[in-house]
Structure to design on (76 residues):
């Protein structure tokens, strides 16, 4: 039987550290979560309404930023 480390190449310590990280969503995934178009998400990112990060050539939205945006929209 293989250990998890052998299967994934990730040690238990690394796994624990990764669990504390914020999940990153693609712009497409963020649009799906919000039920809106990709173009609207991109516009809101440009307008500063949703925080994002560029990872390589991809624009990614942290799940925490999406939750914050939703909570602020509900509070208004």
């Amino acid at each position: 039987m293989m250990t998890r480390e052998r299967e994934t190449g990730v040690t238990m310590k690394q796994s624990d550290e990764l669990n504390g990280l914020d999940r990153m969503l693609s712009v497409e995934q963020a649009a799906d979560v919000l039920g809106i178009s990709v173009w609207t998400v991109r516009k809101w990112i440009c307008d500063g309404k949703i925080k994002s990060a560029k990872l390589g050539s991809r624009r990614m939205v942290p799940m925490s930023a999406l939750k914050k945006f939703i909570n602020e929209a509900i509070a208004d």
User: Anything to note?
Assistant: The domain at 23-75 is CATH 1.10.10.10 (Arc Repressor Mutant, subunit A). The CA atoms of residues 5 and 67 lie 32 Å apart. The chain has a mean pLDDT of 84. The longest strand covers residues 58-62.
